[in-house]
Amino acid sequence: MTLPETMRAIEISEPGGPEVLTPATRPVPQPGPGQILIRSAYAGVNRPDALQRAGSYNPPPGASDLPGLEAAGEVAAVGPDVSGWRVGDAVCALLPGGGYAEYVVTPAAHALPVPKGMTLREAACLPETFFTVWSNVFMRGGLRAGERFLVHGGSSGIGTTAIQLARHFGARVFATAGSDDKCAACLRLGAERAINYRDEDFVEILRAEGGADLILDMVGGSYLPRNVKALADDGRLVQIAFLQGPKVDLNFAQVMTRRLTITGSTLRPQSDLAKARIAEALRARVWPLLEAGRVAPVMDSEFPLEEAAAAHARMESSGHVGKIVLRIS
């Protein structure tokens, strides 16, 4: 494959709102040892992209300053010491950054084959979301069949994925969302109960069921003490974001007397080896489900690369259900 010298990209001109996402021309990156270069067809849009745009989520050392943490396309070049991938292979990949561009490099071990029967548009929705859900719900949270699982933001990309996977692996799934339509979407995906947080109290509902064995939360703020109340004895709370902020007064006596576990993680700063292990688990446990059509990404909308600002505005409006993608080629 003959590579151009430059590529179209979207860069962050300065910290701020969606309007600071600016079309630009950048040199095509070159893959280093253990890396592949992907010619992207689609890139996923995620909340961490908006945090980076606002200046509150810096790229890790050595990563591209361009936003974008997942993409799907074809392998355009392979670096030294790469096995298992060839030029022309269809892949989707977790990225350290740089996804809002025509070409992007990533560790080869963080790429996965596009599931059979799935389009590149759909595949671009998989890496960031599925890596996050699998590592936090199943690896860190230890969700088991028969347990009561509550996911906040059930209509988000994370939420729609968590509902499907938890239901498939035998959990009883509860979800919160902000409208009746979003709650209906959660029910269609397999939630046993969808809770409109504007009208109902998830604490009361979960306590009536015996409490949640596991909660996946990205809200934080006032939800933290309410999550603790909603947990069953020996329950686990996994925190993956703080849309309402990370600081709150919390009575830790409940954590001690009821033997609760509070944990959490962010994906981007983890080591390449940790991410490779998540990829291996997904390939073995989840990719067969995707290929069989038993689990699928939920698509909300598509925007051209040059309209990344509109995509961010859509995401931050919280009106979307499922994933938003950028069409690159």
UniProtKB/TrEMBL annotation:
Q: Which UniProt keywords apply?
A: NADP, Oxidoreductase
What CDD domains does UniProt report for this protein, alphabetically? p53_inducible_oxidoreductase
Q: Give the highest taxon in the source lineage.
A: Bacteria
Identify the Pfam families for this entry: ADH_N, ADH_zinc_N
Task: Name the InterPro entries for this protein.
Answer: ADH-like_C (IPR013149), ADH-like_N (IPR013154), ER (IPR020843), GroES-like_sf (IPR011032), NAD(P)-bd_dom_sf (IPR036291), Quinone_OxRdtase_PIG3 (IPR014189)
User: What would be an example GO MF term here?
Assistant: NADPH binding
Q: Which Gene3D superfamilies match?
A: Medium-chain alcohol dehydrogenases, catalytic domain, NAD(P)-binding Rossmann-like Domain
Q: Where is the Enoyl reductase (ER) domain?
A: 16-326
Could you confirm whether the keyword Oxidoreductase appears in this record? yes
Name the record gives this protein = Putative NAD(P)H quinone oxidoreductase, PIG3 family
**Which organism does this sequence originate in?**
Tropicimonas sediminicola
